[in-house]
Amino acid sequence: MNRVPNALPLSCDDTVNLIEQHLCCKGSSRLPVLAVAAAYKAAKNGLDERVVKLTIHNAPSGQTRVVGDIQITLLGNVKAVTVCEMKNKAVQRGDIDRALQKIVVQGKHVQNYIFISTEPVAEDVREYARSKYDETGGVEIAILDCIGFLRHFLHLFHRLRKDFLDQYQVFVLREADSAVSQALKEAFLALRQAAESAD
After folding, report:
1. Residue 28 belongs to what domain range?
2. How far apart are CA 121 and CA 129, in angstroms?
3. Which of 29, 59, 140, 195 sits at a 20 to 30 Å CA gap from 70?
4. CA 21, CA 191: separation in Å to the nearest integer?
């Protein structure tokens, strides 16, 4: 990066805009997973939670014995307390039913199941998710939009915005080319450099 030493980090909104531009690139289906994982990784010390190692992008959950794309545990614990599942489409009732079935079949202890979608959420689907809390004995299901989640996170943990961006870059560059192409990796570096040198 050709960044001026001691320059201000990107603002929260500029950081969100940078990620949003990257998510708009061709072949970006894995990027929402990396963005959310980077947010949790950047904030792990303040949350007393950690992200369990990410599974490969094309592994079916039945083979990996995981629920969702990201599993978050309390520090010093092995049980997943929060699970995030990314969707590059609108979340449907069937997605919620399948998530709950995976939790039961695999015997996972999940308190919070979060769908993070790149598409708007229908109100009837949001209500269906909310209705499952009592039925499941306390599994809370939320449906959030990816950019809204990141914007909220970066404003809530304002001091971590550079840590988040650095961690996202690490995840993007380390990801296998089959999940994040070399062109997509280079696109992020170019977008970041342009954003940071525009100050």
Report:
1. 12-193
2. 11
3. 195
4. 8
